[in-house]
Amino acid sequence: MKKLLLFITLISIIGCKDTPKNMEVNDVTMDSLVVDEDLDTLDEKIISDYDMSTVDVENKKEFKESLVKIEKEFGEQWGFCECVIKGDSINKAFSNPDLPDDQFDKLSERFDYIDEKCKAFRIQNPNVTPEERLAHEKKVRNCLKEAGIK
Questions:
Q1: Which residues have CB under 8 Å from 61's CB, separation 6+?
Q2: 3-class DSSP state of 91
Q3: So what's the pLDDT on residue 3?
Q4: 50 or 116: which carries more pLDDT confidence?
Q5: Per the domain annotation, does 20 fall within a domain?
């Protein structure tokens, strides 16, 4: 039961929204953009090499503020594909029905470490529409395919 709960937790952590590669880009006028002087100072405080193009323009300031707070507490955050690949790997390890308790404990510690490095994805918008879920699933599949996993 403990393994199942951990497995379900891992799946829920990895689920996040990211921009697909082939997404249509809409024209944006200067009137529709919100200019904020604090965005530049937030960039200086972010230590992760995080791809901000995956963050929705409307939520960029809030995301950056949250990322600064997350990094202060948990350190540098990993990229999307790195989190997907490491999450998939630990998922496979947890799915072993003959996993000894000492190995389970080691995997649990590794899971906690991965969780700390992938917290930034949980603050993005959730996948609420079928289109967003499909785009997210495609992005995950692309990451795994590029890594030679699936």
A1: 34, 36, 38, 39, 42
A2: helix
A3: 57
A4: 116
A5: no
Exposed, middle or buried: residue 123 (CB in 10 Å: 0-12, 13-18, 19+)? middle
Domain count along the chain: 1
Is the residue at 19 inside a domain? no
Measured between alpha carbons, how far is 150 from 144 in angstroms, rounded to an integer?
6
Q: What domain range includes position 98?
A: 59-150
Residue 31 lies in a domain: no
The per-residue DSSP string of 3-46 comes to: HHHHHHHHHHHH------TTPPPPP--GGGSPP-THHHHHHHH-
Residue 146 — pLDDT band, cuts 50, 70, 90?
very high
CA distance 74 to 83: 15
Model confidence at 34: pLDDT above 50: no
Angle between helices 80-94 and 2-14 (to 10 degrees): 160
Give which of 85, 72, 58 is closest to 120, Cα–Cα: 72
Distance CA 6, CA 45 (A): 33
Number of residues in the chain: 150
Whether 49 maps to a domain, the answer reads no
Q: List the structure tokens of 101.
A: 């308790």
Three-state secondary structure call for residue 75: coil
Instruction: Tell me how crowded residue 85 is: count the other CB atoms within 10 A of its CB.
Output: 19
